[in-house]
Each structure stands twice: as structure tokens, then as C-alpha cells.
Amino acid sequence: MPTAAPATSAVAPQAAPAWAASLRRFNDLWMHDLLGGPRVLKFAWVINTQKAGTFFFLGFLMWWYAGKSATATAPAAWIYLAMHGSYGIAWIIKDLAFPDPNWQVRITWGSALADALGLGLYWSFGWLLISGVAQPHYPLPDPAWFCLCVSLCLIGSVIMIAADAQKYFTLRVKRGLITDGMHKYVRHPNYLGEMMIYGSFALMVGHWLPWAWLAYVWLGLFAVNMAMKEASLSRYLEWAAYKQRSWWLLPFVL
Length: 254
Fold this sequence. Notes:
Strand content: under 5%
Order of helices and strands: HEHHEHHHHH
Number of strands: 2
């Protein structure tokens, strides 16, 4: 069974970096409390609607553009449908089996709309490819590039789901710092997996727009969450030793 440090081994946590704390307040405002008012919807409902609808939306785009663009039914479009659409289904299965408590918070109608628009930008990746707006020129032969993207998506999905599962089930048994399993060498494996997944989508599309949106998400959301999480975990006595022997995100690199 994965181990967690005893919850009693705690000290005063370190202060979060000022930049991360400021961006967290901004993110919480637009993601949870935009325009104020009652919090009537669960954040998870907005996320899951987008995830569950991805396969159908991309399939609709392929049908819609079938007579308008040769790229709509090209191998790249079918592979993209399998990658992004199946990831959305895998997310729903994961959420049903071990839901992330961070997504169970209630949000306002204004935030629900803003979140839906933000999540909708992920759908634009597939639109760029299927509609023919993006004309990717892969640096490798198509079959080799497709193999690379599918492999990155599959491995990233395993890392993300395994890390979330370990965290969910471990903390149900014992609260504390998780330092083994998926978290043994990388302190944020779930974010690493997510970045591999969406990076694979951007590599398939071959357009600047996905990379621009991902840069915002990775720097403005992911990096903030990781910095805030590390500040919180610093309350454990074991944190300093764990941080010394592990990597922030990518083994041997970062």
C-alpha cells in the first residue's frame, strides 16, 4: 500500500511565493466567483460536460467538414479524435471512480460561463486540424509523428490517472505527505501527465494557437497550483528531505 507520512509530523508551513498567491486570488475569482451571486453549480459539472462532449463534438466537426476539407477525414483527424475524444471518456471514468475534491467546489453562473469558454478553447485544437485551418508540416514522416503523439498521450494519461488514484486512495487511509509510488521521483506527476496529454494534442495540430493557450494554462494555472501546493506541503517535517531527493516536474530536467 502507498505510504504517507504521519499527519502529526507537521510544522508551520512556508509562505507561498507572492506571485503565486496573487495569481491564485485572480484564478479563484474568475474560476469560482466571477460576477458574484450564489454558487449554484459544481465546478466538476462544467468540466465533465466538456470532457464527455469532446468525442461527439470532434465527430460532428469531421462530419460537418467532410465535404468541405480533405483534412476532415484524413488519418490525422481520425487519430486526433481517438486521442482527444478517448481522453475525455477516460477522464469521466476517473471522476466516477475517484473524484478530485478540488473540482467539487460550487461556482457562480459567471464563473461557469467563463470556465466553459476556457475549456472550449481546447476544442479549438481539433477544429483547427479538422477544418483545414491548420496545415501541419511534421518534422518526421506522418506515421512516425503519429506514433510519437499517440505514445505521449497514452503515457501521459497513465501517469495522470495513476497519480490521482494514488493520492485519492492513500489519503482516504492516512493523511500526510505522499513520497512513494508515482510521487517518489516527481512531486507533481498529475500535472506532468496532463502536460504530456495536451502537448500531444498540440503536436498533432501543428499550429501556434494551441501552444499559446497551453502556455497560459501551464504558467498561469499549473505553475501557480504547484507553487501553492509546495508551500502547503512544507508543513511536514519530511518535506525538506523529500524535496531534496525528488524533482519538481520532470526527472533529471526540472
